[in-house]
Amino acid sequence: MSLDRVNPAGLSPATGFSHAVVATGSRLVFLAGQTALDGDGKVVGATLPEQFRTALTNLLAALSAAGGTPSDLARVTVYATDVADYRERAPELGAIWRELAGRDYPAMAVIGAVRLWDGDALVELDGFAVLD
């Protein structure tokens, strides 16, 4: 399996994401949206960074259970109820990403959402990975 991250020189610098990811492998893992739910199904964390950490931890746990690692992520979509807050906290969120998932960034997008399935959730992450 290989994921080749492509960041053309003519595009804005890819900070915390890759512009394109070319995936070669034999298994696709589609990851359901993960919020900051704990094992009892309760949203934990009052701030966006707290919830982002838990949501990313949950996403990576699902990926690991399917046999993957963070470097296998080809695409992640982030749904945020407050995009301005997300942009303001981007350096802190990026540090959390690097701590938990490393620096092999997938193709990413941040989408503003009026409300998420879990009413107290501030952020949700989904994505897919390519494995051998």
What does this entry look like structurally?
It is a single chain. The chain has a four-stranded mixed sheet with strand order 3-6-4-5. It is built from three helices and six strands; from the N terminus they run βββαβααββ. The mean pLDDT is 96. With 132 residues, the protein is α+β, with helices and mostly antiparallel strands. The termini are close together. Helix content is 27%, strand content 31%.
Give the structural class.
alpha+beta
| Strand adjacency order, main sheet | 3-6-4-5
Radius of gyration: 14 Å
- Regions with pLDDT < 50 over 5+ consecutive residues? none
Count of individual beta strands: 6
Largest sheet: 4 strands, mixed
Fraction of residues in H or I helices: 25-40%
Order of helices and strands: EEEHEHHEE
